[in-house]
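ingest -> validate -> predict -> emit
validate: passed (alphabet ok, no gaps, 232 aa)
predict: started
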Amino acid sequence: MHNKIIILSIVLVLIVLFTQTSLAEFSIILNFDDAYQGVYVHAFQEMKKYNIPAVVFVITKYLGHEKHLSLKQLAELKSAGWEIGSHTINHYDLTTVIPEFLHKEIIDSKQILKNNELIDNDFASFCSPNGKWSPTIEKIVSANYTIARGDKLYIFNKTQNEDIIPKVIVKTTSINRIKQWIEEYQKKDQPLILVFHEVADGGNEFFFPPDKFKELLLLLKEYKISLFKDLI
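emit:
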């Protein structure tokens, strides 16, 4: 009887430790695609209050354009601990681009960011527009980047990747829905990738309201917020 009690106690302790470890390792990764101005004006200014970083994927053709982030703003984000990644040059559907231009979209966009000291030598992340993916795209991306977001998350130094599917946030996405995703991914012990586009009032379905974003940060600040490079 005494031995059974000891064994049961050990099992319970192991269960508790496993649960605590799983929750401790769970993290949320915030992505901002296209590098719109609202990311700096509305998201970044609020996120600084909680020391929350994010990954912003840049369409290099629009660097410094009126509605998109400037090199100076991106440098400030990087200095604040944000990760800057490539979102191609023109934001084409890469599955429809001929091989010559496919290389340019994937490789030259990285070089532009690297030349402006927004990407370091030892790590680079990539995001395919609209999640479009194919074996040809993967071959080029895997030779030039460490990690990528396509139809799912790809970590190229791993022999096998889990099916981590990003969750795209739109204007109508509720805070309760995001809470449900958090609970779901905690149970799966997988990182939860939340994908935003613009953070601003008005606009199309991909414009997430700033007030709603502030409300979301009150929830997110209770969790570990990571970057893609933290998964390596």
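The two ends are 47 Å apart (CA to CA).
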